Automatic annotation (TrEMBL), chain A:
It is found in: Cell membrane. It comes from Nocardioides aquiterrae. The keyword Transferase applies. The lineage of its organism: Bacteria, Bacillati, Actinomycetota, Actinomycetes, Propionibacteriales. It catalyses: ATP + protein L-histidine = ADP + protein N-phospho-L-histidine. This is Sensor-like histidine kinase SenX3. It is a multi-pass membrane protein.
UniProtKB/TrEMBL annotation, chain B:
SUPFAM superfamilies: CheY-like. The modification 4-aspartylphosphate is found at residue 55. Keywords: Phosphoprotein. Coiled coil: none annotated. Residues 3-119 form the Response regulatory domain. This is Response regulator. It comes from Nocardioides aquiterrae. It comes from the Bacteria. It holds the Pfam family Response_reg.
Length: 683, 126
């Protein structure tokens, strides 16, 4: 046995002796039975507190011995004392068995005791267990008394009432006391003392005063006035406003006052001459006061707990709704906003409301995906109010807050069980998602188109060649060469497109690990390679002049080379037929929001960019020139992607004397020579 | 023999289409885009093709829109769309016109058959 268990045993034993001695003092003359028996409650708490263990037999033996001893010492005969002791143990065991089954949380409450009887249903279980245990013990107890006194059915009923009430009043007190001393977190749940809301200490003092005055008037002033109902008033006050702990203490004190007054021959119960009847009525009074006060208090406690839980859940739901990225609005049948989270406001704006708070739904500027305004009867709120559910419908919202429009996936449905009806509308922003989807579809379409065109050429001309070969049709060598040339050119186009697509993906996904790159040798290498390429192909050799003082930049070398090569390659390709490309490459230092930059200009004498297409040339698959100039339409979009991933910008402008200047910027290398100039002015 | 206008921006594809149709003895004209086709309408009032054979994805317009403009001048003009079928929407749009459609890459015989159907009386189902 542990020391804690031993202290428990000694504590309960002492409490039991005290309660039993007190009970034995409350005895009417000529009766072998006490008027009240709080010891029954102490015994019940004793057993319940420890639960079943290998030491339970010791609890039972000590309980029996103490009960017999107290009864003997307070004047009971040995036979009566043993009978009463046996009845006490029997009642305790029956109560324990029932509580263990009905309220398992109370059984073995030594580890984590609940704060008290906090639910009306629990009070019902407690009262039923106390009553049944008292009835069980009544089979033994009154029989023992019968052996020494003239007993009747009244004594039997009286036994049941006083023992049952003893358990009913003391057990909750033990629960709360145990909770306050042993629970790991006694602050959890409603406060065990005082009202949860309102002026607790002041009200408690007022209650104490009122109760004392009432008890004095009702029980200690010998008055013939029929005023015992005053007890009901203070009991109802206690139960309705205070915790179960205060309620049970109040009921015990009032019952004690009635008992003491009756034992002293005072109060309304002394008007009953027959002692047995007097005891019975007093015990019935005590039972009613205890049950009434506890029932009111448990009901109040239950309501407060539910309110707190509701408030917690409401706060939790509100927090979740407020932190959602999706917009949520709840609107009533009159069009008034009941709830709206910050995301809803951000997504659809703050609509106009009239004096009655009614939202002007049309002011949201909702439209169909094809741009048609939504008719009033098509509005999701109106549809949901008519009982329909709108599931993930794409709509566009365009109003003062979102003038550019925003694509929303809207779900609206009536909230079940609301009267008057409420509807909930959820907005999910799908603008970027839909744009990406459309772009992907468009991208795939262009790729398919640009691959299938050369494939058509290869397939068609090779079919023609095959057919003619099979048929033995004579075809001159020049025609054959011409056809094979077309096939080869188509295959090269496919190869270029696939290469550009890979470069495009690389430009988007490749990790950028910028290092210091000297532009001078890089541009020189590319220029020499391009000149050589034109010479080999028999084209006019380009004249490329490179500024000798090109600074160093911070860039991913492979991607930077691709940018410069694309720009110089475009300058060579897009010249008038037969013209010699003249290209100049210069650089200057500049400032930008991300720090010092190097702006690289590639100027040419080419055919230029058609008016209004200077931004579009950087779009995927945009081709400014179709006649005679083949290309995938990806080159400049690759350039733009690479440059932007380095924090720079890419732009195109016309030269004053014809041709184009393409400008790209990259971060300047840390160890630059010379001062950084202020941001360059646009020409 | 029929006068066929080919609207196709890819010159190699345009030449291949021409090669396929020349065997049938058709008289052919080729333009790379919608603007050139409309220029033809404007500058050569005496020219009226019996059939237009066009790509859907043209650099400056789409085939269905261009056909509407051409049909406003050349009433009842039959057409064959030679195109990449990449979305159901585009296929549906072409089919709504009731004209022939040939998917790239195409077999020469299939193209010639489509042209014959389009030129036949009642070839336009719209």
């Amino acid at each position: 046995m542990s020391w804690a268990r031993l202290y428990d045993l000694l504590g309960f034993a002492a409490s039991f002796v005290l309660a039993a001695v007190l009970g034995r003092q409350a005895m009417l003359d000529g009766s072998g039975l006490a008027l009240v028996w709080p010891a029954a409650g102490v015994a019940a708490a004793w057993l319940a507190a420890n639960g079943w263990s290998r030491w339970t037999w010791l609890d039972a033996v000590v309980l029996f011995a103490l009960s017999a001893a107290v009864n003997t010492l307070t004047g009971a005969s040995p036979g009566l004392a043993f009978g009463l002791a046996f009845a006490t143990v029997l009642q305790t065991l029956v109560f324990g068995l029932l509580i263990m089954r009905w309220c398992p949380g109370w059984w073995g409450f030594g580890t984590e005791p609940p704060p008290g009887v906090e639910r009306v249903r629990d009070l019902g279980y407690l009262a039923a267990a106390a009553l049944l245990a008292a009835v069980a013990s009544a089979v033994v107890g009154p029989a023992a008394v019968l052996s020494v006194a003239d007993t009747s059915w009244k004594e039997v009923v009286s036994w049941v009432l006083r023992n049952g009430t003893g358990v009913l009043a003391v057990f909750p007190l033990a629960l709360t006391a145990r909770h306050l001393t042993r629970a790991s977190d006694p602050q959890r749940g409603p406060a065990p003392v005082g009202p949860t809301r309102g002026r607790g200490p002041v009200e408690l003092a007022a209650l104490a005063l009122a109760s004392a005055v009432t008890a004095w008037l009702v029980f200690f002033v010998n008055s013939s006035l029929p005023i015992p109902f005053l007890v009901l008033a203070v009991s109802a006050w206690t139960g309705a406003r205070f915790s179960p702990f205060v309620a049970v203490v109040h009921a015990i004190l009032l019952s004690g006052a009635a008992t003491v007054a009756t034992v002293l021959g005072m109060g309304p119960f002394t008007l009953i001459e027959d002692p047995a009847t007097r005891a019975l009525v007093l015990q019935a009074y005590v039972a009613v006061v205890v049950v009434l006060t506890l029932a009111l208090s448990a009901g109040r406690s239950e309501v407060l707990t539910l309110n707190d839980r509701l408030a917690e859940q409401a706060a939790m739901v509100r927090t979740i709704v407020d932190t959602m990225a999706d917009g949520v609005s709840v609107i009533d049948a009159r069009g008034r906003l009941v709830l709206r989270n910050p995301a809803a406001q951000a997504l659809v704006g703050d609509p106009r409301r009239d004096a009655g708070g009614r939202v002007d739904v049309d002011a949201y500027g909702l439209r169909h995906v094809d741009g048609r305004p939504l008719a009033p009867e098509e509005n999701p709120v109106a549809l949901a109010l008519s009982g329909r559910t709108i599931e993930k419908e794409d709509l566009v919202v365009r109003n003062a807050l979102v003038p550019g429009g925003r694509m929303l996936e809207v779900t609206a449905r009536p909230l079940p069980g609301t009267d008057p009806p409420l509807v909930v509308v959820v907005f999910h922003d799908v603008t970027a998602e839909r744009r990406e989807r459309d772009e992907l579809a468009s991208f795939a379409g262009v790729v398919a188109h640009d691959l299938l065109n050369p494939l058509t050429v290869i397939d068609g001309w090779s079919d023609a060649l095959l057919e003619e070969a099979r048929a033995g049709t004579p075809v001159d060598a020049e025609t054959q060469m011409h056809r094979l040339d077309r096939i080869q050119r188509a295959a090269q186009r496919m190869q270029h497109l696939i290469s550009d697509l890979l470069a495009y993906t690389t430009a988007r996904d490749r990790d950028i690990n910028p290092v210091r790159v000297e532009l001078d040798p890089l541009v020189g290498d590319i220029a020499r390679a391009r000149v050589e390429s034109s010479r080999v192909r028999g084209l006019p050799e380009p004249v490329i002049s490179v500024d000798p003082d090109l600074p160093a930049v911070l860039a991913e070398p492979v991607l930077l080379r691709q940018v410069v090569d694309n720009l110089i390659g475009n300058s060579i390709k897009y010249v008038a037929p037969g013209a010699r490309p003249e290209i100049s490459v210069r650089a200057r230092r500049a400032h930008s929001a991300v720090g010092p930059m190097v702006e690289l200009d590639v100027s040419d004498n080419g055919i230029g960019i058609p008016a209004g297409q200077h931004d579009q040339v950087f779009d995927s698959f945009h081709r400014a020139h179709h006649d005679g100039y083949r290309g995938t339409g990806l080159g400049l979009s690759i350039v733009k992607r690479i440059v932007e991933r380095h924090g720079g910008i890419a732009r195109a402008r016309d030269n004053h004397d014809g041709g184009t200047t393409m400008t790209v910027s990259f971060p300047a290398a840390r160890l630059v020579d010379g001062p950084i100039e202020p941001p360059a002015q646009e020409q | 023999m029929a006068r066929v206008l080919i609207v196709e921006d890819d010159s190699d594809v345009r030449d291949w289409i021409a090669h396929c149709l020349l065997r049938e003895g058709h008289e052919l004209r080729g333009v790379p885009d919608g603007a050139h086709a409309l220029t033809l309408v404007r500058d050569e009032p005496g020219y009226r093709p019996d059939l237009v054979l066009m790509d859907y994805a043209l650099p400056d317009t789409d085939g269905v829109a261009l056909l509407a403009e051409l049909a406003a001048v050349w009433e009842g003009l039959p057409a064959v769309f030679v195109t990449v079928q990449w979305t159901g929407e585009i296929i549906a749009r072409i089919e709504q016109t009731g004209h022939e459609r040939v998917a790239k890459p195409f077999d020469a015989d299939d193209l010639r058959a489509a042209v014959r159907r389009a030129l036949a009386p009642g070839g336009h189902r719209a």
